[in-house]
Specification:
377 residues; Rossmann fold; ten-stranded mixed β-sheet
């Protein structure tokens, strides 16, 4: 039943499956790839601003979202937003089982819906997110649309079913061009111990914050920078970070990684950067059916040590033991690859997000200190 002033909303998949619910956020229609996030009740601010989800419609598996509202956009001494992973919401639409419209937190300055409306993002609630999640796990992410209607307006199901048939798979779109910095940015702490270049594919703010905390100057460069342009900045090391889209089509980043490996430049890959290094190493990058989109995922290394990690990636690497690379980590549940390391060169990568591993400060320290050690600074 739709009550007075409530807005009807619909989630329509390309195969004709649809779910009707209640609209939140902007009154709008969006289309694209629909996927999920299995983070717990906290962390939705970070997910909404994570560039890895650029242009995607995202379902939250946790049953209630919005409980602590949205904090103020306060910047630190380097001009970086303290509690956001980028400067705006990156996903296209939001799917939740239940939205909390009365948040409670001392840092909250607005509700989640207020924020969605400000940034023109539609959402839907009161649908069976468990059923949809099971579809994703068994069949992978899907194409579709999400529409929030004006109060009193009803969807035309037949028209929407026809419309969704015309959507093209965004798998071959270069999405990083929409999230990468447009110009070089420099962040310099007092008593800097060295310089790290971040080749920006959609890097999360927390990666920058972690390096600054460890007293490294960070230079963020656009993805169009090539090897020579980057080396002119005299870095001690390079990070190829997280970002959205299909790694296989990113010719320039792959070419950069190839030259970094050839020239023994200390390099760390994260997320998308991990897959780029894996492709360059001769591995095969494929899209996973059950994507890794959670905050409590266990990885294991060669010495059977286990770590809890935060993950947000749809692609994985196989056939990677080539050109001097070997496995660094694998997923404990499905045995997919979660990290690579070169046997003799200062280069490694991880599929997970070490800067965000929940309750695992040791993992953040382990991964970033490993990179620092490779830089020999």
């Amino acid at each position: 039943m739709i009550y007075k002033n409530e807005r009807q909303a619909i989630l329509m998949f390309q195969d004709g499956t649809f779910f009707e619910g209640i609209g939140i956020g902007a009154t709008k229609k969006v289309s694209g790839e629909i996927t999920f996030s299995a983070i717990p009740g906290s962390g939705y601010v970070e997910i909404l601003t994570d560039s890895t989800f650029k242009n995607q419609i995202v379902l939250f598996t946790y049953p209630s979202i919005g409980n602590y509202g949205v904090p103020d956009k306060i910047k630190d001494e380097y001009g970086i937003l303290r509690q956001f992973e980028s400067d705006s919401i990156k996903l296209k639409g939001l799917i939740v089982n239940e939205y909390c419209d009365m948040p409670s937190h001392y840092e909250s300055v607005k509700t989640l819906e207020d924020w969605l409306i400000e940034e023109d993002i539609p959402g839907i609630q009161w649908i069976d997110t468990r059923m949809i999640t099971q579809m994703f796990v068994e069949e992978g992410s899907k194409l579709g649309l999400l529409q929030v209607f004006d109060s009193g307006q009803n969807p035309n199901i037949d028209e929407l079913k026809k419309e969704v048939q015309n959507f093209e798979d965004p798998v071959n779109q270069n999405i990083i061009s929409r999230v990468s910095t447009k110009k070089l940015k420099k962040f310099t702490p007092v008593d800097s111990r060295g310089t790290v270049i971040i080749y920006d594919l959609g890097v999360k703010n927390n990666v920058i914050r972690t390096l600054l905390y460890k007293n490294f100057e960070v230079i963020l460069v656009p993805y169009l920078y090539d090897y020579d342009m980057i080396m002119e900045l005299n870095p001690n090391g390079i990070i190829i970070p997280n970002g959205p889209g299909n790694p296989n089509i990113l010719k320039q980043p792959i070419e950069l990684a190839k030259k970094l490996i050839e020239n023994n430049i200390p390099t760390m890959g994260i997320g998308l950067g991990h897959n780029i290094i894996g492709i360059t190493a001769g591995g095969t990058c494929y899209k996973m059916t059950a994507e890794h989109r959670g905050g409590r995922t266990t990885v294991q290394n060669a010495t059977n040590h286990h770590h809890i990690t935060f993950q947000n990636h749809a692609y994985s690497i196989k056939d990677f033991q080539k050109n001097g690379f070997k496995e660094l980590y694998h997923d404990k549940d499905d045995r997919t690859n979660e990290g690579l390391i070169h046997e003799s060169k200062p280069i490694f990568s991880v599929a997970f997000n070490p800067e965000a591993s929940p309750g695992a400060l040791d993992m953040k320290e382990l991964i970033f200190n490993k990179f620092i050690k490779l830089m020999e600074v």
